[in-house]
């Protein structure tokens, strides 16, 4: 197929379960796989064309995530709900170059997205598709940033939003949800507890859930980070990508984007080694990876300053681990003391007040470099997921 003979805004074909292969109609409202023995997250599949030159194809397009709209799930552009999300900067290290001798290290800085984090990508996509499917009320459990993003995009779309958030979440996250007009339910527990209550209320009231990887479209928004990385690196992917892993949507999405771009002929078969970085408070993926397991166990040791990393058991743990194994990657856990120090250090040295989740990547990089796992000459990408301004209550 060639784009030149197609007038379609989106080349979406259907949804497919990556576990059992069952195909689902993308024109219907879907959550997870209908196979009761599977219940996996669903992947959108596209009629990917051949023979496109990416530089020519993307020339003169707007600098946001919708520049890749043929490979995104919104069929009618009238349904796009956007606040300008995407195409965030790729920043080389400036004053910390002496600490990474032998490597090129870059930040992909997502803090400039609407509502201050990468959640704008996934939530913006999910809300846009919800509008297209006629959904009128959306709910989500959140550790903070996803709730603010949902509140903002639902306000823009005229869709009702209910957000379930742990009571220990910093006040700024709660304030922004209320300011955007969302219903905020504070829960005395972690995000898993929020998820249970959100699910119960959604089922009782007929609301639609956009819980992490329990619907197909947040993944599609997050995958645009993979397309952007390839484009910003001139279609030569970095050797290693460090990713803060709570629910893991972005890690899976980036991996999906790489596979799609290979089918498009935009990149080759080479892949970065993916590194999942977690908090020691919730390091189930690290434990599973180190044990060679295909699923993680529930692990929650309580509060962490990186609110987004307090995910005791990711719903798509199998897909996260699969990407780590396929990429010959790694998984590492960082404690709050190390993250706190790294936030301050990076702020003072690089002029970037990044989220604790992002700061954890710097610590993880230094540790893996010291062991020799990061090899001389390798190009490394650290993906900062959000703004540290929203975490000042947690930083000491």
Structure description:
The structure is a single chain. The chain has twelve helices and 13 strands. α3 runs parallel beside α4, α7 packs across α8 and α11 crosses α12. The protein is 34% helix and 16% strand. The protein has three domains: 77 residues, no CATH class; 201 residues, Rossmann fold; 91 residues, Rossmann fold. α3 links the parallel β6 and β7. The strands form three sheets. Strands 4-5-13-10-11-12 form a six-stranded mixed β-sheet, sandwiched between helices. The protein is an alpha/beta fold and 396 residues long. It is globular. The longest helix is centred in the middle third of the chain and has 16 residues.
Summarize this structure briefly.
With 396 residues, this protein is an alpha/beta fold. It has 3 domains: 3-79, no CATH class; 90-117 and 219-391, Rossmann fold; 119-209, Rossmann fold. Helices cover 34% and strands 16% of the residues.
Number of helices: 12
Helices and strands, in order, run as EEEHEEHEHEHEHEHHEHEHHEHHE
Structural class: alpha/beta
Instruction: Give the termini separation.
Output: 56 Å
Poorly predicted spans: 1-5
Helix content: 25-40%
Radius of gyration (CA) equals 20 Å
Oligomer: single chain
User: What's the main sheet like?
Assistant: 6 strands, mixed
Return the CATH topology of the largest domain: Rossmann fold
Mean pLDDT: 96
List the helices and strands and how they pair.
Elements: E1 12-16, E2 23-24, E3 43-46, H1 54-58, E4 90-92, E5 104-109, H2 119-132, E6 137-141, H3 145-157, E7 160-166, H4 171-179, E8 183-187, H5 191-205, E9 208-209, H6 217-222, H7 224-232, E10 240-244, H8 249-264, E11 273-279, H9 284-290, H10 317-326, E12 330-334, H11 336-350, H12 356-370, E13 379-384
Parallel strand pairs: 5-13, 6-7, 6-9, 7-8, 10-11, 10-13, 11-12
Antiparallel strand pairs: 1-2, 1-3, 4-5
Helix pairs in contact: 2-3, 3-4, 7-8, 11-12
């Amino acid at each position: 197929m060639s784009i030149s003979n197609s007038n379609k805004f989106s080349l979406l074909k259907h949804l497919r379960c990556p576990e059992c292969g069952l195909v689902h109609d993308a024109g219907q409202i879907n959550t997870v796989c209908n196979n009761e023995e599977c219940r996996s997250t669903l992947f959108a599949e596209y009629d990917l064309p051949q023979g496109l030159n990416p530089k020519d194809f993307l020339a003169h397009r707007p600098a946001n995530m919708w520049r890749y709209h043929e490979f995104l799930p919104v069929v009618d552009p009238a349904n796009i709900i956007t606040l300008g999300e995407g195409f965030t900067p790729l920043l080389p290290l400036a004053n910390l170059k002496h600490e990474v001798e032998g490597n090129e290290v870059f930040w992909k800085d997502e803090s400039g997205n609407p509502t201050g984090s990468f959640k704008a990508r996934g939530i913006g996509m999910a809300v846009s598709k919800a509008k297209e499917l006629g959904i009128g009320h959306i709910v989500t459990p959140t550790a903070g940033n996803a709730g603010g993003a949902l509140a903002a995009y639902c306000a823009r779309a005229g869709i009702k939003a209910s957000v379930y958030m742990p009571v220990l979440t910093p006040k700024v996250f709660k304030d922004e949800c209320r300011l955007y007009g969302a219903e905020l339910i504070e829960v005395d527990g972690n995000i898993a507890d929020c998820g249970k209550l959100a699910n119960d209320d959604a089922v009782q009231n007929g609301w639609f859930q956009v819980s992490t990887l329990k619907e197909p479209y947040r993944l599609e928004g997050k995958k645009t980070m993979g397309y952007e990385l390839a484009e910003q690196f001139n279609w030569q992917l970095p050797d290693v990508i460090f990713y803060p892993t709570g629910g893991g949507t972005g890690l899976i999405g980036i991996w999906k984007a790489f596979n799609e771009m290979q089918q498009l002929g935009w990149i080759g078969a080479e892949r970065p080694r993916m590194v999942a970085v977690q908090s020691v408070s919730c390091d189930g993926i690290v434990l599973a990876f180190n044990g060679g397991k295909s699923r993680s166990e529930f692990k929650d040791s309580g509060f962490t300053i990186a609110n987004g990393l307090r995910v005791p058991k990711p719903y798509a743990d199998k897909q996260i681990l699969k990407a780590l194994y396929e990429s010959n990657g790694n998984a590492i856990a960082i404690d709050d003391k190390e993250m706190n120090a790294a936030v301050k250090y990076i702020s003072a040295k690089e002029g970037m007040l990044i989220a604790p989740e992002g700061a954890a990547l710097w610590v993880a990089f230094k540790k893996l470099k010291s062991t020799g796992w990061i090899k001389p000459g390798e190009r490394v990408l650290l993906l900062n997921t959000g703004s540290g301004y929203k975490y000042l209550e947690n930083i000491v």
